[in-house]
Amino acid sequence: MDNDNYEDDYKRKLKIRQKYKQMSLKQIKNQKVNQRYRQMNNKKLQDNKIRKNYNKLIQEKLIYRIINSLSTRIHTKLTKLDIKRTFNYTDLLGCSIKEFENYLLENLKEGMTCENYGKWEVDHIIPFSHFNFYIYSDIIKCCEYHNLQPLWKPENREKSDKIITIDNP
Predict the structure, then answer these.
(1) N-term to C-term CA, the chain
(2) pLDDT category, 7, cuts 50, 70, 90?
(3) Tens digit of pLDDT for each residue in 135-162?
(4) CA distance 151 to 125
(5) d(CA 131, CA 133)
(6) How far is residue 121 CA from its own chain's centroid?
(7) Taking Cα atoms as reference points, which of 75, 77, 71, 83 lies closest to residue 130?
(8) Cα–Cα distance between 163 and 23 in angstroms, integer?
(9) What counts of helices (H) and strands (E) characterise the chain?
């Protein structure tokens, strides 16, 4: 009985080998191209899934919405200057996302809440325009969490690119 299974298995493998030999080189190449295409599409599907999860996170959690907004601003500035971005915004913060969230919450002005974000914004204490983005250390100084503060939207618009100092009596 085992001998019959062995012969059947051998015949099946022999048929596969013969079929493979009969395939033209073009067919073999097409098989490999199709296989590679499926692998690439799988990567795109995974990327789309990650993107959807990230977008959902931005909608649900304010801190990710703020970080996304700040990151987009930096990306736009660097693109305008034709500088290739080689870092994540969170690397430049100088703290973890949770620490940044706590920092912002501790510095909210009276009346500011997570629910009314949009009426207030995250302001750069030393504005963008005061930094040289061709110097990496300036990018870090600009993005560091100590250079960020919650500010009412009208105040932030009025402040614009000025540095406001508090005079001590």
Answers:
(1) 102
(2) confident
(3) 999 999 999 999 999 999 999 999 888 8
(4) 10
(5) 6
(6) 21
(7) 77
(8) 73
(9) 7, 2
